[in-house]
Specification:
5-stranded mixed sheet, about 30% helix
Length: about 90
């Protein structure tokens, strides 16, 4: 009998500006903290709070981890399979 699988994770992609921010991170501690935050939103894309805005663009969400001191601004695609990170702050 095959082992049961956990919940499906969303794929995470980065905007160009977030990719540049990611490239600028050199601290192993900051990378570990960011990785933990990305795991959270990949398991539960709705973990972050909705940011105020209009309905003309993607609905932005913000995930903040005060313990790890990480902030991600992202949106989720209509199929809820890809989380696109627009801003990274570690």
């Amino acid at each position: 009998m095959p082992a049961p699988h956990g919940p499906r994770r969303a794929q995470v992609a980065f905007s160009d500006s977030a990719a540049k921010q990611l490239d600028a991170i050199t601290s192993e501690t900051e990378l570990h903290a960011l990785d933990r935050a990305l795991v959270v939103i990949s398991v539960d894309p709705e973990a972050g709070e909705l940011l105020p805005g209009d309905s003309t663009g993607p609905q932005l969400r913000q995930y903040v981890d005060d313990v790890e001191r990480v902030r991600l601004v992202y949106w989720v695609t209509a199929l809820k399979t890809v989380v696109v990170v627009a801003f990274i702050e570690v």
